[in-house]
Design brief:
The protein is 69% helix and 0% strand.
Length: 72
């Protein structure tokens, strides 16, 4: 399951603006901001939709997690 921090790492790594991701997901940009900052949880349905829209595999998520951990 994605976290907001992982979502941001993946999005930034792909040079994808929040606005564009929001349009791809059919949500408002502020919702992306809220998920990335932890103000709104990423639901199971949204997690699935994000992975589908961004064509994410578990390997991508693990790589993003590794990148996140290396920046701590």
């Amino acid at each position: 399951m994605l976290t907001g921090k992982l979502l941001k790492i993946i999005r930034v790594n792909r040079e994808l603006p929040q606005k564009e991701l929001a349009e791809m997901l059919g949500v408002h940009q502020s919702y992306i901001t809220q998920m990335e900052t932890g103000k709104k949880p990423i639901t199971k349905n949204m997690d699935k939709k994000i992975k589908e829209v961004l064509n994410l595999t578990e390997e991508n998520v693990i790589a993003a997690f590794s990148l996140f951990m290396s920046t701590k």
